[in-house]
Design goal:
This protein is an alpha/beta fold. The chain has one domain: Phosphoenolpyruvate-binding domains (TIM Barrel), CATH 3.20.20. Helix content is 42%, strand content 15%. It has twelve helices and eight strands. Helix 2 packs parallel to helix 3 and helix 4 runs parallel beside helix 5. The chain is globular.
């Protein structure tokens, strides 16, 4: 769908390149706009762990429309009523957290597709068909494939149940949640631990075998370069800004000139 740049995102990952993105948590939509104009392939708008609202998601969708950047929205939980209004914004993908088993996966897919395609999504056309600019049937044909249904794998139970999860039709991508995943093993943020690294490799290997691309939150570039991921969120807006501010302060501390003695307080 042209309105959400999904085709550009898919072209990127299908070419063998890794799509790069950032997590958006700040309510000023200019941050989403400038991140998209900076050249990110996608933005991950986070409605789970931020003060962002549905209205903010709508504004961000409009802000990035004229760029080459696809917009993903992470909903707070795997519930139909939380997904429904987000789907009506026509995002390129929805990220659905804490998928633990095949039943969770089936519920997520059903919520994202219309009854004719085996789902339970309701009709309320607005932005999805460009407010009526696109014919109904043309939109419905696209809705079989859009948005991407991205399931977040962030618990040891999900890793144990991965074969059955990947056996559910309609899954478009997996998203690794490294912090929660490590915590579920009792090894919070110990990403170099062999058990955690093996879990990540298991996710990548089984998803590749099933033909499902994998992405995730990958702020440590060196660590995540070990794994064959199709897309990476390389940081959050607040984290990237904080690092940039710190770097700018350090740069100018190193280059500062001494304050003239006449201006110094005694």
């Amino acid at each position: 769908m042209k309105i959400n740049n999904l085709e550009k995102f898919l072209k990127k990952i299908r070419s063998g390149d890794t799509a790069l993105g950032a997590v958006i948590t700040c309510r000023d939509i200019s941050i989403a706009e400038l991140a998209a104009d900076a050249g990110f392939d996608f933005l991950w708008l986070d409605l789970e762990h931020s003060p962002l609202t549905l209205a903010d998601a709508m504004n961000a969708s409009v802000a990035v429309r004229g760029t080459d950047c696809a917009l993903f929205v992470r909903v707070p939980w795997n519930e139909n009523y939380l997904l429904k209004p987000v789907l009506d914004l026509a995002p390129a993908g929805v990220i659905i957290p804490m998928i633990l088993n095949a039943d969770d996966a089936r519920a997520a897919v059903r919520a994202c597709r219309y009854p004719a395609d085996g789902g339970e999504r309701g009709f309320a056309l607005r932005r999805q068909n460009r407010y009526g600019a696109d014919p109904w049937m043309e939109y419905l044909e696209q809705s079989v494939r859009e948005p991407l249904v991205i399931l977040q794998i962030e618990h040891c139970q999900a890793v144990e149940n991965l074969d059955s999860i990947l056996g559910v039709p309609g899954i478009d991508s997996l998203c690794i949640g490294p912090a929660d995943l490590s915590s579920s093993f009792g090894k919070t943020l110990q990403f170099d631990d062999p058990e955690i690294e093996n879990a990540v490799r298991t996710i990548c290997r089984k998803a590749e075998k099933a033909g499902v691309p994998v992405g995730g939150f990958c702020s440590d570039s060196r660590y995540w370069s070990r794994f064959p991921l199709a897309w990476k969120a390389v940081g959050s807006d607040s984290g990237i800004l904080f690092d940039a501010f710190r770097s700018k302060i350090a740069e100018n501390r190193d280059l500062h000139c001494a304050v003239p003695s006449a201006l110094r307080k005694s």
